[in-house]
Amino acid sequence: MTQRDTKLAYQIYLYLGALFITSLVVSNLIFQKFFYWNPFGDIKVLGASLFEVSVGILPYPITFLITDLISEIFGRKKANQIVTAGIFASFFSMGIVLLADWAPAIPSSPIDDETFNRVFALSPIAVLASMIAYLLAQYIDIALYHFWKRLTEGKHLWLRNNFSTYLSQFVDTFTVVGLLCVFKVLPWDLFFGLLVSGFLFKVFIAFLDTPLLYFFVYLIRKRFGLEIGEEIKLEA
How confident is the model at residue 236 (pLDDT cuts 50, 70, 90)? Predict the structure, then answer.
């Protein structure tokens, strides 16, 4: 590649990384609010409400789209580096939130201590559960993505995009909901509903983001003249 192409490739990787980290951090900040995403209303199975999910799930699927895109264009090593950076950013942001919660509000503050604490003072157990689930899911997603990529010799992008995401998203949902129930952040009677609804939502989004992945991969391949399965090698 020319020096200009190399510079552009680094910029694309940087912006993808920024979107990834922003999506991850925001999902941890807003996860305490829940909503129904099923337009047909409340559905219960075995007494558990389906389609009841945290708003933190909204930006989270974007992280899997980005890691798949980075894996496809820049390779496994660069995708893993973004995941590791996301962990650092998440813990750093949680530390800032806890520090802000510790600082006492003045009487004229628009937001008092109690309100701030209820919204932003996240349970350390909840954050830990989210981070453990995140690590497992993202590294599994990247490993499976490249397994399918090698097996298909770089063909069938839809297959590795979806089948890597489905398993990793199940691991993520099962782990985070399970740990939150084990440590009594959530009651066990919510486990089944949150597991099924969260997983179905993520699968639905993964299915929808496949055309987006094809579109962005096409644009980047065309710009850099990449063959199917070929990756851009960036220095560490």
Answer: low
